[in-house]
Amino acid sequence: MRAKITYLVTAAVLVFYFVLVGSRGVMLIESGTPMTVTFGIAVLILPVIGLWFLWKNTQFVRKANALAAELEAEGGLPVDELTRLPSGRIDRDSADEVFAKRKAETEAAPDDWRCWFRLAVAYHDARDTPRARKAMQRAIALHEGKPVSA
User: What's the gap between Cα 38 and its chain centre?
Assistant: First the structure.
């Protein structure tokens, strides 16, 4: 729940920032000189890109959460079998061991979104966020029945 609140607060702050920047861009365009109009258009591009990124990220999180809920209902969520250090951080060797199991599971069933979901969790636990995101995107695509490139 804490992560959800943090995400919502961050999204609200970003939307406020985008509105603020967008209003400055409109003010520059209203000035009417060729230089300010050009600069105003350039300034308006930033909030558009930001809003697009925020929207895509929100959709990704929503879909990943839906997969997690479905997997939980099936009783297929990965069990936390990781060893933790006294600080609470995950032991790297433990994460690598679990990752090897998840990778083998996924290689055995490459078209199963559940395996890709669990692999994404293992990547995340191993602190490999880019690969975790790609694995989760693949799980989402497989769940939605979309074609997935190798």
Answer: 34
Q: Is 84 helix (H, G, I), strand (E, B) or coil?
A: strand
d(CA 111, CA 95): 24
Q: Which structure tokens are listed for 94?
A: 């433990």
Residue 8 structure tokens: 């919502």
CA distance 67 to 104: 21
Considering the chain, what is the average pLDDT of its residues? 90
Residues of the chain by 3-state class (helix, strand, coil), percent to 5: 80, 0, 20
**E strand or H helix that includes residue 141:** helix 129-144
Q: How far apart (Å, rounded) are the C-alpha atoms in residues 9 and 38?
A: 32
Model confidence at 148, pLDDT cuts 50, 70, 90, reads confident
Asked if residues 84 and 91 have their Cβ atoms less than 8 Å apart, the reply is yes
Tell me the pTM.
0.78
